[in-house]
What does this fold into?
Amino acid sequence: MFLLLKNRLLMLKNRLSVMRYGDVLEFLGFGGLGAVFLFVLYYGFVRLLWEVHSVEMIGSLLIVKLMAMAFLTTFLMIVFSSTLASFTTLFFAQDLPFLVQSPLPFRSVFLFKAVETAAFSSWMVLLAMWPFLAAYGFVYGLGKGFWVFLAAMAVPFVLIACTLGIGLSLALMCVFPSRRVREVMLLLGVFVGGSLYVLFRWLQPEKLVRADSFEVLIQYIALLEAPLAPYLPSWWMTSAVAAYTADRGAGLLADAGLLAGAAVLLGSILVFFAEKAYYFGWTSAQESGRRQGTSALGREWRWVPRFFPSGFRGLVGKDALLFVRDANQWSQLLLLLALVAVYLISIDKLPLDNAYLKGLISFLNIGMVGFVLSSVALRFVFPAVSLEGKCWWLVRTAPFGLGTVLMEKVLLGFFPLCVLGVALVWASNRLLGVDVFVTRLSVTTIGVMSFALCAMGVGLGARFPRFGVENVPQIETSPGGLLFMVSSLFYVGATISLEAVLMRMHYYSVVRANSAWDAPGTALVLAALFLLNAAVVLGPLLAGKRYLERADV
Amino acid sequence: MIKTQGLSKRFRDIVAVDRLDLEIPPGEIFGFLGPNGAGKTTTVKLLTGLLRPSAGRAWVGGFDVQTHPREAKRILALVPDQPYVYPQLTGKEFLRLVGDFYEVDLSHQKKKIPEFLEMFELGEWGDQLVETYSHGMRQKLVLAGVLLHQPRVLFLDEPMVGLDPKSARLVKDVFRNLAGKGVSIFMCTHVLEIAEKLCHRIGIVQEGRLGLVGSTEELRRKADSSGSLEDVFLRLTGGDEYHELLKYL
It folds into this structure.
């Protein structure tokens, strides 16, 4: 296994050694962008934790509760991510035939792929935890030792999560014949969707912001003190951090022991299980079943409107068919539906007593839906160009321009994204009972935002394509994916900031019962919004088109 | 039908194609030979618009590939060295896709797709996903797609790899037939026997530069060799170095 890991490091070294000056600059640029983004988050968390920490009696308890939520979410995300990633790395990776036919023991191949999966599925999630933990360390005045402690604790924490994820995919692959991977993914989707729902209802975050809903303060404190999912490693991790902060050696040892023990035990069980099942799973993954029945020629994409040009219709039909047939893709729609349900439930449960709060929340709701759309676009729209993969030659030699290809992908992403976004704001506005102006503003904004995010996603996906990768998460977590995420968040933030001016004028008009609308101000905001959206749509698309025209892909 | 003028492509410090001047008339099968890494695939990519040249120009059917790519692409077809086809489409769906890309009339597609599938012995596989196809079957599917839109210029990068003898014979007959109808064919291959039997002219490229060009007879004369095309090729590109190494095996 170490030989294989060494080989992987050598590949990385070779890749770095052929970087040109421009590549290094680009790499540093992305690194800098990521660092700025993390630092902004860190700064925000420092301010939040200072505020919470200063609350007497309950401040520290609330922070621990927040940390428990963060670790629980991180833990479930790593489990989910490693389950999805291991389907590719363990069963369909391009290097597997070479590795399997080599004289290496099968266990070594499995362990190598498991380590690869763990590294791949956890680095991003762990990085996302950094701003919170760094802010925590700063607020509590914990020194460098805190980082050593965290690094030591993170190893068993990640190992347990990945072991569960890999074990799940291994079990699913063995229980179901490979030709029924779709059903397996369906099951997985339901499992993840259900877990998210349970997680959210478990956390009940709305309770934390309403101390007054408890009859006595002691009841509230009891809620804060209660462990969150005490049988999961996320709580052991939280408890260990709390023990380290309070300098409680015995508690720290107990939690660290639990984490390490569980990691060793689960890891051993996984290796034992893999020795029995991995070869069977891998060989059955190589088999393909025959489809039954015949299809009538000419009906493949008859649902695509005929007013589109023939080539465009072919592209739309092909992309839709591939999406439906790629269980990796559509199984996550179930996750999306669970997310929508959770979102609407949380809007419904929000404790809003007055019209001002309702108005404020309904306005912020536009931003929240925008962020949801950004993550959906990152998952489904940004990878669209890269997913052409090695078949890109067919599209490039076809007699239509790159503009047609990019616009097809924008439109194909736009319709579902727009329906999702508009449905979300419309339903949440109904639940909040807001007025017509806010509803119109939300629906229009989300409609425009859906298009802009799709254009940005396709454009940046084309500017930073990853045609050679094996799975979608690799595309999402690429530097281009990071740039899209950061840019889309800034775009949503800028839109909300500009619209806050309109919202304020509307609110004053309602409160004062006479118009507070200022025509030049409104025109300025609308012009700024137009320019912002034009830049977001055209900039990335043109950059992507230009890059694809010149690149050797 | 195909013309290049000083066509060059440079990747960082490597010159992949170096000032290529070429002219291929309608109906000619042109064999493009050369050792691995000589720049054959890069040339095909430049001629089909998959790559931008560093210098020089290329025309297909009179259309500049860079300034009039759509017009050029409408009349050309490519069979790449690796027949990558969307694995989650069926054979029929792939051919429909190609038909729609090239604006082939639907009634023509409905008539021709089953015919081509039968011709390449893929009739029973038309409704199966491409992921279940062998390399040779994918190659034949790509060839069927090429025939569907009736190109006037055909670029073939190792078209015989993976084909069984019967299919290889069929494909060769198809190429001859197309050439007879005025289609120009630019073929990269390492199978020298095929080049010798099929091509009207052959060009040998080495380190990006086109060396000799001519019919097999002309090449023999120019290389001062009376042997087969293989002997001519080895004489021009070097091939005796391994004899010493063979002793150690």
Q: What stands out?
A: Residues 1-287 of chain A form one domain. DSSP finds 20 helices and no strands in chain A. Chain A touches chain B at residues 20, 288, 290-291, 293-295, 297-298, 300, 309-311, 313-314, 317-318, 321-322, 325-326, 389-391, 393-394, 396-401, 549-550, 552 (CB under 8 Å). Chain A has a mean pLDDT of 83.
